[in-house]
Amino acid sequence: MESQKKNTKQNTVIEKLLCSFNQNEIFVKREDLLPFSFGGNKARKAKKFFDYIIKNKYEIVATYGSSSSNHCRVVANLAFKYGIECYIVSPEEEYKETSNSKMIELFGAKIIKAPLDKIKETIDCLMEKLTKNKKAYFIQGGGHGNLGTEAYVEVYNEILDYEKENKVKFDYIFLASGTGTTQAGLACGAILNGEDSEKIIGISIARKNPRGKAVVEESIKDYLESISYNSKVPSVIFDDSYICGGYGKYNDQIVGIIKEVISKEGMPLNTIYTGKAFWGMREYLQKHKIIGKRVLFINTGGTPLFFDDLKEIK
């Protein structure tokens, strides 16, 4: 257990919002304030991957993501920082210029566009080519994998530290759930500390069940096996009720919540991840008649996406 409580250097602030909902106290863990490349859960995960990449002297890094990908922005930024060649495979469908895509280009990453149904083939061909003469490492989209999961095991320990220091206990933890490793890491953190992992509610930003739920549970299983921890994998709550038609889709209510939260709390959200999840959290609390509880929302970041959304906020 002690090994799971190391490395809390990236600890971020937890703050209580002025606004409450259904008499629930709402707290936020500000992962968007991590001090590198606009922060966010992708920055925390990427640091884990780059610690491994640098330790093992990889010369090239490659990954996958859309033109609005926070993950790709951070990977490209870290690659530039450490002088590592970077390749990004991206779906060509609806590829558009965003704040993130501009920064990815600024950091000198080589972008390879491909049709969505050719992504796996493109990645396989790229890695075969890159590994012929150099040592290349591929990071799955969104920082998926045990290193990404481990980053959020550590975050759960940070939450426990906050609860102990402030003599509070969170009844629910909500977050935007995409590739599943952030939610899986929090769930593993709960399991390793003997706590109820079902208080962690993942609001899906794109995937539907049963696949979305299964991916999170598989990530939990993989991580626990990797540290030789024998535990039954619990059922997770991965709610796909608020995806609004899929990745990047949103409604007027989400836009309204983004406007409300930036105006009243000074905290940026975005239509792809955190705004959708914050709206989903409110709807979930209302639907399940949850009243008078302490609720923690993980702001997983994506600050550049907020500026892409500004034109929608009126």
Key phrases:
314 residues, alpha/beta, Rossmann fold, 2 domains, 4-stranded parallel sheet, 42% helix
Description:
- The structure is a single chain.
- With 314 residues, this protein is of the alpha/beta class.
- It has two domains: 2-40 and 145-312, Rossmann fold; 42-143, Rossmann fold (3-Layer(aba) Sandwich).
- Helix content is 42%, strand content 16%.
- The protein has helices at residues 41-55, 70-82, 99-106, 119-130, 146-166, 181-192, 211-226, 252-265, 274-287, 303-309, and strands spanning 14-16, 25-30, 60-64, 85-91, 110-114, 136-139, 172-177, 200-204, 237-239, 294-299.
- A six-stranded mixed beta sheet has the order 1-2-10-7-8-9, sandwiched between helices. A four-stranded parallel beta sheet has the order 5-4-3-6, sandwiched between helices.
- α1 (41-55) packs parallel to α2, α6 (181-192) packs across α7 (211-226) and α8 crosses α9 (274-287).
- The termini are far apart.
- The model is unreliable at 1-8 (pLDDT under 50).
Provide the structure class.
alpha/beta
Number of domains: 2
| Annotated CATH architecture of the largest domain | 3-Layer(aba) Sandwich
Q: What fold name goes in the CATH topology slot of the largest domain?
A: Rossmann fold
List the uncertain runs: 1-8
Mean pLDDT: 95
Spatial strand order of the main sheet: 1-2-10-7-8-9
Q: What fraction strand? A: 15-25%
* Sheet of most strands: 6 strands, mixed
Number of strands: 10
Q: What is the chain-wise order of helices and strands?
A: EEHEHEHEHEHEHEHEHHEH
Helix content: 40-55%
Distance between the termini: 49 Å
Helical segment count: 10
